Amino acid sequence: MLDSRAKELCRIGQSLFAKKAPYDSLCQDIADNYYPLRSDFTRELALGDDFTTGLMESYPVQARETLGNAPSAMLRQGDWFEVKTGREEIDEDPEAARWLEHATKSYRRLVYDRRSNFVAATTEVDHDWVAFGNGVISVEESPTRDHMLFRAWHPRDCAWMLNEVGKVDHLQRKMKKTARNLKKLYKDKVHADIVQACETDPSKEFNVRHILMPVDDIYGDDKIKRRQYRKTPFISIYVDIDHEQILGEAGLPVFNYVVPRWRTLSNIPQGFSPSTINSLPDGRMIQSMARIILEQGEKAVDPPTVAKGEMFRDAVNMYAGGMTYVDLEADDDIRKLFQTIETGNVSIGMEMKQDVREMIAEAFLLNKLFLPDTREMTAYETQQRIAEFRRAALPFFGPIESEYHLPLLDTGFQLALHNRQFELGELPDLLDGEETTFSFESPLNTAEGRQLVASFQESVQILAGAAQFDKTIPSTMDFKKMTKDAVKGTGAPADWFNDEEVQQSEEQQQNAVDGLTQAAAALREGAGVATDVAGASVALQNAGLA
Questions:
Q1: pLDDT digit string (tens) for 441-490?
Q2: In this predicted model, what pLDDT tens digit does every residue of 269-314 receive, in sequence order?
Q3: CA–CA distance from 155 to each of 133, 137, 139, 541 (Å)?
Q4: Could you tell me the sign of the dihedral formed by the alpha carbons of 265, 367, 287, 71, in that order?
Q5: 0.70 exceeded by the pTM?
Q6: CA atoms of 294 and 302, how far apart (whole Å)
Q7: What is the per-residue DSSP string for 338-366?
Q8: Which terminus of the chain has fewer Cβ atoms in its 10 Å neighbourhood, N or C?
Q9: What per-residue string of b and e applies to 345-381 under the rule 16 or more CB within 10 Å gives b?
Q10: What are the sequence ranges of the domains in the chain?
């Protein structure tokens, strides 16, 4: 008897992939022009295939490659993320800041473990994000259960649904597995056909689908199953599609597939890349132009010729040292019987192609993703250039941080906590019950920090000038707050700042030192004008210290 739930899941998956077919066709067109290595959405690629067959110009591919490398090169260098709460008053508390910094370092070691595959997986997703506006990456516990594992998946093989708040919470991923591996993994749960294939053809492949979805969607009416998965809101299911049979299932505490989408449209589960969508006409056109210009260049170097047929015995031998026999009359001029045809100016085509290249470069932000050099600029010029950079780069960096990095790191952090993969020590009372989030070190944040430093420097200059006319002006500003924000803007670590108790203690010590200094000065002054203790006491009173 077939499993009714497996049959229903197969039907849902078939519907999802059928609805996604037009999107795959669009991605195939994009890949043909911009990402030849990924041009297998609607056709199969073999290892020996020439991925760039049909391309006459590599500039669109290079533009996509450059922008695809930008997220890793510009957003994931050094200590690029920090665990935070999102509440400034808590994150800036010295005790909480030290604990959050410890959590950040512990989690960073897990992410960048050499076995986690984080760099390779995110690099693959980066290029899918830039080319198609969509990527799929999973965060898992390794089979040995001693490290995390990040894996990227082909968008072609995945279909998903959105919940009522527009988040992906149901994903189906199709794959092929050999009979041998299925029998090894699922043992007695496999179909008889798979058992038989293990004996006759162990390498025979069967269609399998991994499904991750909320428990309530499949076991909402089953009290026993709901009780079984009460601590895990999501369920991971492997289904034998060929025989509509569930092979295995297990609960998950988090939805461990992350589906970053660059530009979204209402009621469409898939994302889009503005870079490739906006420049796709240019990508097609520049290939046609390159073919025409190449042909025109060949004509310019080796131009076509025409000749009078009855005069030339055979074709004209135009190669070096070639000899052509011609039957000429005594009064014939060879220049009148043989001519080279002028085919036009190649430089015009090159100018047109350069214009198209500039349009593609504009679409891929190749002239905008660099911080301006502010070393020889005034504070005002620095602020204006940084503001200009932020406006240009925000459409690219902003969605990566919110739709890609944040959910990926948050999913991994929650999974690592659930699996007890690192110890965070005693939690400060201030952090008890607070949710965690992440802040990122990026060119945008660096620009903000530089702007704070520039604002501090400019403000100090203004206050210093105003103080010459009104000495009370500096007292209107909180110099401690200004200095602290400016130092943080330089990227100073949290453990550079003292606790409030230490700050107060040091302030008291400094006040005591200042008081003793003033007292000593007052005593010296008093001793200079009087010879008795009463005179010194008067001096102390006048100094406000007695």
A1: 876 666 555 666 667 777 777 777 777 777 777 777 776 777 766 666 56
A2: 999 999 999 999 999 999 999 888 888 877 777 777 777 666 665 6
A3: 10, 10, 16, 81
A4: negative
A5: yes
A6: 12
A7: EEEPP---HHHHHHHHHHHHHHHHHHTTT
A8: N
A9: ebeebeeebeebbebbbbbbbbeebeeeebeeeebee
A10: 4-54+109-275, 305-340, 501-542
